Every structure is written in C-alpha cells, then in structure tokens.
Amino acid sequence: MKAAVYRGPHNIKVEQVPEPKVKGNRVLVHFKAGSICGTDMHLYRGDWRWMKKGRILGHDAWGTRDDTGERVVMVPIVNCGHCYYCLRGLPTYCLKGKFYGLTRDGFFVESKAMLPRSLIPIPSNVSDEEAAVVEPVALALRVLDFMKPNLGDWLTIIGQGAIGLLMTQVAQLKGCRVIAVDLEDYRLELSQKYGADAVINAKKENVIKTVRKLTKIGSDLVIEAAGTKGTVEQTPFLVKKTGKVALVGESKGYLNLEDADEALFFTIYISPVEYPSAVELIARKLVDVKGLITHRFKLDDFEKALETADTPTEKPLKVIITE
Ligand SMILES: [Zn+2]
Ligand SMILES: [Zn+2]
C-alpha cells in the first residue's frame, strides 16, 4: 500500500509500505482525507531535522473503520493513562506518549491500525472535506480556553494562516474583539469575513503603534500564530501589563519584558483533548473550516501538494489530501 514517507528535507516521497498488523483490540482504518499542517511544512523545509527518516507523515486525518464502515477522525496522540501528566489530565504531555506523524508513523497511508479510543465518530452533517481539518480547531479551542477571555477583551492574533483564522473564529465565539495581523491582504479579507474588528497589514502599518492606538493600554491577549522569531519578539510590546500571550507558531526568540509586567507567556502546539469538541463545533457550523481549504490533492500527488503549500503565490491556506 502507498504512504507519504519522510526521507529528509525537500525529500518526501510516496512509497510502497507493508500492510499494518492489526494486533489486540486495534481496528483497521482506511484513510479517506487529511490536511497538511504547519508542522509538516517545518519538516519539509528542513527547519526541524529530528524526524526519523522513513517515518510516515500525517497527523490530521480521518478514515473509515474496517469493522463498522463508520467515518472516524483519528486522534494523533496516544497517552499511557498513568504517568505524571496523564494523572493530572494532561495527555498531551504524556511521558510515554506516541505522536502519530512525528514520533510514530502517521496517517498519510492507505490503512492504519488504531486503538478504538483514538477514533472520534464524524456526524453525518460534517462533510468529507471538513473532517480533514480538525487539529487546528482543537488547538484554537485549547488556546482560547486557556486564556479565559472576558467579554470584549482585545485579542491580537499575529498571523492569519489557517490556524490564525480559526483562532479569529473561535475568539468571536468567546466574545473577544479581534485585531488580526498578517502580511497578506487576501488573508486579512478572510479575517474580516470571520468577524475581526480590526485588521493590520504589517507590511503597510506599524503593528505595535496601531495596536496601542486601538487598545489604549495594550492588548488584553495576544496570540503568535505566524511562526517567526520576529513576531515572537514583538509580543511583549503588544500585550497590556497583566495580559496573556500564547506562542502557537514559534517559541524561539528574545522576550524583552520591560513593559510587560505580570503578563503571562505560554507555548502550545497541539491538543488531543479538544478533538470531540472541535468535531462538534464544525458540525454545529460554529466554525468554518471549508472556507480555509484552498487546494486538493490525491495521496499519489503528495509531493506536488507540499510544493503548492510552500508557494506563496498559490495563496495556500489548507491543502487537503484525499485517498
Ligand atoms: Zn499539526
Ligand atoms: Zn502518560
């Protein structure tokens, strides 16, 4: 059967791999669709080189159960249930955790043996394409839950790629006033469509000055979702004293906290916990993932999909992979 295999930066190939062994209570899931994530792009570009060569990529996908035929979303983290973090309800940081698509073979493969507890049924009113974009919704939920915004809080979101745009959407549900920041007007138009109260094109405007002008004392909350050192370093100048900053895209950078007294900074990249709520949010049409899908490719054309996702003139947001 076919799989998208990591051989190194700019070297990800569709190869033949052995069929999975279905041991114990595992069930076979047949891949139907998934999406390429920023993490996959970091690996593709060679920003991160710790990935084992020969590893199958993919951590945001769904398929059909071989035993029941049911459509199910596959959760990419399997936790042990009894380590320090698991006992504290933090499976993301399980000391024995397995992360499909990173530390274990991922989902961009024709079929995969999965534990039933890692499978979330997809409601009938969620389309095949929508079900391919669950991970960033779960992350947006986690970040906003963590920030606990008050109604009317200013939230500045740097970066309006797929993740940033989902943060913008979830922030509306939480009653925030969103200031969306990006370098591309086509993305900021989507931010407006999704309800952002203000948009800033960082190529044309001074982000810190504009945010200060809008919020008077600084943004109550800030999310860094652009994934650059420069934008990480900007966050202390955007947040108000005692505010909160989530670093979602990148965590490296020098934080000058001179004017960010009592502000809280935290990083967060993935959350398996919010998957059921994320699927429910999509089903209830409270978030729109469909509008973020810009390109579609077959698993056979995985390399072309990565190239497209890496070409800014293609204006990629979410690139979908189908069987
Ligand atoms: Zn991801
Ligand atoms: Zn554990």
What's the gist of this structure?
The chain is built from nine helices and 17 strands.
What can you see in these coordinates?
The structure is a single chain. The protein is an alpha/beta fold and 323 residues long. It has nine helices and 17 strands. The strands form four sheets. Strands 3, 4, 5, 8, 9, 16 and 17 form a seven-stranded mixed sheet that branches. Strands 12-11-10-13-14-15 form a six-stranded parallel sheet, sandwiched between helices. Strand 11, helix 5 (185-193) and strand 12 (198-201) form a beta-alpha-beta unit. Helix 3 (135-147) crosses helix 4 (162-173). The longest helix has 13 residues, at 135-147. It starts with a strand and ends with a strand. The model has no long low-confidence stretch (mean pLDDT 96). One zinc ion binds next to loops.
Structural class: alpha/beta
Helix-strand sequence: EEEHEEEHEEEHEHEHEHEHEEHEHE
**Count of DSSP H/I helices:** 9
The shape is globular
Rg over CA atoms: 20 Å
CA-to-CA gap between the ends?
A: 11 Å
Record field, number of beta strands? 17
Taking pLDDT < 50 over at least 5 consecutive residues as the criterion, the unreliable ranges are none
What portion of residues belong to β-strands? Answer: 25-35%
* Share of helix, binned: 25-40%
